[in-house]
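Inputs:
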Amino acid sequence: MKDTTHHNHKQGFAGDETPSPAKPPLAKRLLRLAIAVFLITGFIYIAPNLERLPGGVGETITIIRESGIDTGAWYYDDVEQCFEGMDFIREKRGMNR
Amino acid sequence: MAENGNNDNVVTETKVSMWKQMGTTEDWWAIWLAGLLFIIAVFCVFTWKPPVEKMPEYRATMNQEMEEAGFRTIAYTEAESELNSIQARREGLTATVHGLTDRPKGWDTNPIRSLYMGEEEAAAKRAEAAPRLEAAEERLAEARAQAEAAEDAARAANFENPELNAEARAAIADWRQARSAHSSARSAATTQAYNLIPSLIVLGFVMMVFFSIGVKFMNINLRQFYTGFPVIFALAVLAYLIANQATLSALGLSYVLWALLIGLIISNTVGVPQFLKSAGQTEFFIKTGLVLLGARILFGQIALIGIPGIFVTWVVTPIVLVTTYWFGQNIIKVPSKELNITVSSDMCVSGVSAAIASAAASRAKKEELTLAIGMSMIFVAVMIFLLPLIANVTGMHPVWAGAWLGGTVDNTGSVVAAGELIGMEAMYVAATIKMIQNIMIGVIAFGVAAYWCLKVEPERACGIGEEPMKFTAAGALYEIWYRFPKFILGFIGASIIFSIMQGAVTPDWGNAMVSDGILAWANRFRGWFFALAFVSIGLSINYRELKEPLRGGKPLILYVCGQSFNLLLTLFVAWLMFMVIFRDITDQLMAGA
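Outputs:
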């Protein structure tokens, strides 16, 4: 088989499909979907109860939630406290003057 | 150039001219579209300009007050507040577009609150918050009177009496706290009804049209793209909605994880129809998001904490990265170099953002990126609790602890949350260290792309048992240029342009016009593009494909060993820098605490 392409390396994120085996019947697939949706919904439903966990864990979650910090943000410009931190450092180091 | 010795599976490379690539590949279209977004943002920000001419006056007041008193006085605080309220994103069309890109809001028990709140409920909330506002107003007036009295006494002594200064500082800190409580009570007491659904529909449509420009030129079936995109966008909204549940958000379970999970569930249960696959242009979304991310890599911020900050981030991090990658290749022998570099970058640079950049630069498989991000999120959720606990129990100095957290915890939001559990100074130092480390993503992405072009790709291109292709001096540059992932140029280019722009103006002007103007748009759109990308990744992965890179638990061993080394080395270097060699900087940061 000869493949003509302008990339000779392996394909990235989107292009490495592997042939999938025969699909199970629709009813079975829908059942699997329903179970997955049920599990995720259940997890989200019980999530607030994680704040009742013993050993200081629940208390810590509550402190973080009440602080309003976006803990899931993964880059600094999504986190307000980073800009406050910059101001704090600049001020303490006399960089604003 | 034909480079695969296996006779039945020869991959022949036909060179495509650069001009053609510029019009037909997602790398270039990511640059064009991100560039278009920046141009529109610059136009709006300069057309609907905030009152930047007032800023020097506020800054002069702040400087004068600081010069006289040596601490934040009442006039300083008020001028600072006025200064910070000058933001281009609050003006004209800039504000409209910024509002359009709103993400679903936070919620506790009712997910509908994330998208909709009726007038009746808003009125009930306002009524409920009214007594709190009243109490906050009283408290504010009282704190203000005390702060004024204490400041006047200190001023009367020309701020030369340490006792009066300390009293004034404490009273003003109390007033500032009362201001903050009042502000929060006021926003609760002025709750407005909202309905994000229409604006989300418009946003989805705008993004569909935006990406369809590139899709058309990239020869992707436009009709299928138009059919599938709304579904992918709806799933991205769902990912944001779940991530904004208050407790899940506190645990750091970000929209990225939910987007992947939602996509994975669909693709592994009911399956993904062709039109959805056509719309799920993972690389296109991710690369456009990365070019926008580049604009936030501002090199001028590197020196914020001086040499100790640079050591903890720009010296320790590369050492850990190279050591972990070497360990993965030579000791535990991770089967895929791309998986190795993606996990290593994710673990030691800055979590999700570094993983995305490294995976895109090395052309890692989507399941490799998924695995790296999944592991990172699980470990981060543990580290948020464990590291502050260690710091508090052992009585670590807040600056040292902050530097340790900033250098090791993967995602910025989690770093700040962990810092909050130690104290304000620790939180601010941690946030700033992480931000300086974030800037390294540009260098890492460029380095990984260059290494893959020079070393990994030529090795892969040669036949089995053959020596890797040797570049001639004349051909080398051309080959590197040809193979180099071009979107990295947009990524680095955006970083350089915005770093120069930010460096050429005053910090206040830069904040008002660039950070809180042009880049505020880039930030919002970037988040949506990545949400689309991660839904698309989930939709294209079969869970069996996830098992392959996990075989033997090697990525897990890599992550645990690399992170342990990172924790120990950062702990030592942060101590050496902040507690021994540059103790003066630590004392500066703690002054008045």
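Remarks. Chain B is about 75% helix and 0% strand. Chain B has a mean pLDDT of 89.
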